From TrEMBL:
Protein name: Serine proteinase stubble-like protein
Native organism: Dinothrombium tinctorium
Domain Peptidase S1 intervals: 123-357
Short name of one Pfam family: Trypsin
Coiled coil regions in record: 74-101
GO biological process: proteolysis
Length: 357
């Protein structure tokens, strides 16, 4: 290691011979090529407040090798910064993906682990039967003031999809709580919410259920499958995807038109109807671009009051996709044959969903 001594930046010795004492230079004219190795590091006394220097007739220049070295250092630093920025971007993207729960590509969404052999239960109908534990792990019951007022579907560990019209009493998310991981209301596992987002084009008007969709965020992460079999998310469809045939709808709502409350979670198998059925029933209030019409040709099973916001799922190769959200129907006509109920078409709102979760 060098001694505490003055040197020029080119490494040559700082020689005091043949020098003349001169006044201190102005700040902008101070020598910039003198350094001292002092206490383990190089210092530039030109910047010291009370330093006085003699002037040399020919100001020393920086050695070319040092210039080349400095250039290499700058290039190396730029490369390292670029690598660091790229790594930070990767970490940020990974965090966003984790937060979103890998909604479409997640290999675990739509999976359910339960004992087989249960006959289909009816949400509305005298032959209603209970759902088995774990059979519908994405189901959420939404409570307000101790009463189940609607349903929802788990999308990932923090977000639940539901219907906007469920929240008539308050838009304050903390006023509601969710029932998850159970089929018995008396054995409820509760989650709590810190954010409620209604679709920006939802209008709170009588007989207007356009854009009837909303999102609830839980205040803590939920433990989903495979960490816990009681809870899992349903998969989202691709934007604009169309479905037909049999679907499954579930909820905690009334089991008949008289308002008899369900004591256990119920499900029902329905058929997606031709849009013309609901267009004839509801006239201009039905919009096939953002709604789905479904029901039973024979009657005896349907959604009813209290099921709003609950999931309509389509099972594709054993995987459940949430294709609709319970929206509205004809009052007092739960379970009538050839009478359709209306569901918000989830595939029409995929971009909106991803904007928030």
């Amino acid at each position: 290691m060098p001694d505490n001594s003055f040197k020029w930046l080119d490494g040559s010795r700082f020689d005091f011979s043949h020098w003349a004492s001169q006044p201190k230079l102005e700040e902008k004219e101070k020598c910039k090529a003198i350094v001292i190795y002092f206490n383990g590091y190089w210092a530039m006394p030109c910047g010291w407040k009370y330093t006085m220097f003699c002037q040399r007739q020919v100001e020393p220049t920086v050695h070319k090798d040092l210039q080349d070295y400095g250039s290499k250092v700058i290039v190396s630093l730029k490369e390292r910064l670029s690598d660091l920025e790229e790594r930070l971007k990767e970490l940020k993207d990974k965090k966003q993906t984790d937060d979103a729960g890998d909604l479409v590509d997640d290999d675990t969404c739509g999976i359910r682990v339960y004992r087989r052999g249960l006959a289909l239960a009816r949400i509305a109908g005298q032959t209603a039967k209970p759902v088995r534990t774990n059979e519908i792990p994405w189901q959420v019951g939404i409570e307000h003031n101790g009463l189940v007022i609607g349903g929802g579907v788990i999308l990932n560990k923090r977000w639940i999809l539901t219907a906007a019209h469920v929240f008539l009493n308050s838009y304050n998310a903390s006023k509601y709580r969710g029932i998850v991981g159970t089929v018995e209301a008396s054995e409820a596992i509760y989650v709590f919410f810190d954010r409620l987002i209604l679709h920006y084009d939802y209008k709170r008007k009588p007989n207007d259920f356009h854009n009837d969709i909303a999102l609830l965020r839980t205040n803590k992460d939920m433990r989903l499958y495979p960490k816990w079999n009681l809870l899992n998310s349903a998969c989202l469809p691709t934007p604009g995807e169309e479905f037909e045939g049999e679907v499954i709808v579930s909820g905690w709502g009334h089991i008949d038109s008289e308002g008899t409350p369900a004591k256990r979670l119920k499900k029902v198998d329905l058929q997606i109807f031709d849009d013309k059925i609901c267009e004839s029933q509801f006239n201009k209030s039905y919009d096939k671009k953002i709604m789905i019409c479904a029901g039973s040709y024979k009657g005896g099973k349907d959604t009813c009051m209290g099921d709003s916001g609950g999931p309509m799922v389509k099972i594709v190769d054993t995987i459940a996709y949430v294709v609709g959200i319970v929206s509205y129907g004809i009052h007092g006509e739960c379970g009538k044959s050839n009478v359709g109920s209306v569901y918000t078409k989830v595939s029409s709102f995929i971009e909106w969903i991803y904007n928030y979760i």
